[in-house]
Amino acid sequence: MNISTFQAGRYEQRFEYKAFLPELVRHEWEVEDAELTDLLGRADRALGELNAFAQLIPDIDFFIQMHVAKEATQSGRIEGTQTGIEDAFKDAVDLDPEARDDWAEVQNYIRAINFAIGSLDRLPFSNRLLKETHAVLLEGTRGRHKQPGEFRTSQNWIGVSLKNAAFVPPHHEHVAELMSDLEQLLNDRTIFAHPLVRIAIAHYQFETIHPFLDGNGRLGRLMISLYLAATGLLKKPALYLSDYFERNKTAYVDHMMAVRHGGHLREWLVFFLHGVEETARASAGVFQSIIKLKQRIDTDVLPCFSTRRLSTARLLMRHLYARPVIDVKKAMLAVGTTINTVSSIINDLVTAGVLTEVTGQRRNRLFVFHDYLALFK
Are 20 and 11 in contact, with CB atoms under 8 Å apart? Predict the structure, then answer.
């Protein structure tokens, strides 16, 4: 199908409301537009550069946990949660009570991302995987009563009420067929379509179907990174688009509505591919900055520790690259030493400017690796 001739669907009359019924999307998708072809090439090259950094950096999985945390907080912001990346690494008891529901949703999103990426070893990218990830996403949160892990069996909508909705997705009787079609678009190798075009269209289609009662926005954005990892376009899950979507939230929503109402698929693809290129280059830049920061600490800070404490200090630093907010007890468990030894090392890292104490208390103090956190803000 030529992108310029795409018709997104039609409104279907239901009882006292109209629901949007999208067209099926399992087609060959031809890109004949010069700008789109150029954008696809640039996005591909940016992903290649990001892959190169991901393969060069030792202990890359520690650093990727920061990308996961950033994705969780930024994706949550699109949905209205207010948890920041620093708070994502705190325990619930370290937060004000009114902030804990938002924090719990971010924690579930982090678990859902890690679960989904880890599950690629046993499952292909599929509706089964999306359902299992959705169950993790909603477990124990405000959406726990909204059919976690199952496609919806009732009508949903975007807006304050069904009568005054900004958008009404298809009736639930269509969801299974539409999601099967989406799954085939992403997996059918007998049809020609660039993987980035497939996932751009699939993300739009997923949000249009809105197959779950809750969590569609978060899961639809997670699905992008999951697909890139499943197809090998990303060697490591180090690219997440929620920050780009959150910074361009109005354009993000407007582009998807423009596809539904006017068939403006080309404009959505331009927006999406710009996001892939921009985000991949930014992520590669973050990896460059991580390398410089790590080299500075390895060269200027760690050699100041005595031979007896050096290995423990290195272990603690390794842990901080995955979890840059820590207290003495967690540090002790992370490195397997006594509380006196780890307290002394933390104090030395504070003196060296690596860690900052943020509570101002004498007990239950929290320490933050601020220079590292700043790279992800």
Answer: yes
Q: What is the DSSP letter of 359?
A: S
Helix/strand/coil (H, E, C) string of the chain?
A: CEHHHCCCEEEEEECCEEEEEECCCCCCCECCCHHHHHHHHHHHHHHHHHHHHHHHCCCHHHHHHHHHHHHHHHHHHHHCCCCCHHHHCCCHHHCCHHHHHHHHHHHHHHHHHHHHHHHCCCCCCCHHHHHHHHHHHHCCCCCCCCCCCCCCCCCCCEECCCCCEEECCCCHHHHHHHHHHHHHHHHCCCCCCCHHHHHHHHHHHHHHHCCCCCCHHHHHHHHHHHHHHHHCCCCCCCCCCHHHHHHCHHHHHHHHHHHHHHCCHHHHHHHHHHHHHHHHHHHHHHHHHHHHHHHHHHHHHHHHCCHHHHHHHHHHHHHHCCCCEECHHHHHHHHCCCHHHHHHHHHHHHHCCCCEECCCCCCCCCEECHHHHHCCC
130 annotated to a ligand binding site: no
217 is in an annotated binding site: yes
In the numeric block, which tokens belong to residue 132? Answer: 């299992």
Q: Is 362 labelled a binding residue? A: no
Which structural domains are found in the chain, ordered by start? 3-286 (1.10.3290.10), 305-374 (1.10.10.10)
- CA 152 to chain centroid: 23
Q: pLDDT truncated to tens, each residue of the chain (377 aa)?
A: 788 889 999 999 998 899 999 999 999 998 888 999 999 999 999 999 999 888 777 778 878 888 888 888 998 888 888 888 999 988 888 888 888 888 888 899 999 999 999 999 999 999 999 999 999 999 877 777 889 999 999 999 998 889 889 999 999 999 999 999 999 999 999 998 999 999 999 999 999 999 999 999 999 999 999 999 999 998 888 889 999 999 999 999 999 999 999 999 999 999 999 999 999 999 999 989 999 999 999 999 999 999 889 999 999 999 999 999 999 999 999 999 999 999 999 999 999 999 999 988 878 899 999 999 999 88
Tokens of 130: 């999306």
User: Per the annotation, does 122 bind a ligand?
Assistant: no
Positions annotated as catalytic residues are: 210
